[in-house]
Amino acid sequence: MLSKIKGVKYKPEYKYPRYKVKLETPKGKFLLIEFDNTQAASMKGYMPLEVYYDGENKGAKLSWYTQEVENLTVSEFLSIIATKINRKYNVKPAK
């Protein structure tokens, strides 16, 4: 992962806990992502809910960044971030 985590907010009060992360990209811009671990049968894994890049709202689209910059899928990228957050907050990941 090339981006650096600058801030984290873990929200356990939701049915599927949410994560809000502020990242600094290799170009020095900020990427703000809110995501959760969805359990829907067709989409198991981490899914973005809101994405902001350098102050611009990108909706829930993140693949443009993960493919171009990180060379990862969205799910892989968010999984790496969630693992770090779960470790920080001592959270057992959903199965």
Structural commentary:
With 95 residues, this protein is of the alpha+beta class. It is built from 2 helices and 5 strands. The protein has helices spanning 63-70, 74-89; strands at 4-11, 18-24, 30-38, 45-53, 56-57. The chain has a 5-stranded antiparallel sheet with strand order 1-2-3-4-5. A hairpin with a 6-residue loop joins strand 3 (30-38) and strand 4 (45-53). It is globular and about 35 Å long. The chain starts with a strand and ends in a 6-residue tail after the last helix.
Layout: helices, strands, pairs:
Elements: E1 4-11, E2 18-24, E3 30-38, E4 45-53, E5 56-57, H1 63-70, H2 74-89
Antiparallel strand pairs: 1-2, 2-3, 3-4, 4-5
Organism: Heyndrickxia acidicola
Protein name: DUF5655 domain-containing protein
Features:
alpha+beta, DUF5655 domain-containing protein, 95 residues
Helix content: 25-40%
Global Rg: 13 Å
Largest sheet: 5 strands, antiparallel
- Sequence stretches where pLDDT stays below 50 over 5 or more residues: none
Q: What would the average pLDDT be, to the nearest integer?
A: 89
Tally of DSSP helical segments: 2
Instruction: Find the count of extended strands (DSSP E, 2+ residues).
Output: 5
Identify the strand order in the major beta sheet: 1-2-3-4-5
Q: List SSEs in N-to-C order.
A: EEEEEHH
Overall geometry comes to globular
Residues in β-strands, percent = 35-45%
Structural class determined from secondary elements: alpha+beta
* Distance separating the two termini: 24 Å
Protein name: DUF5655 domain-containing protein
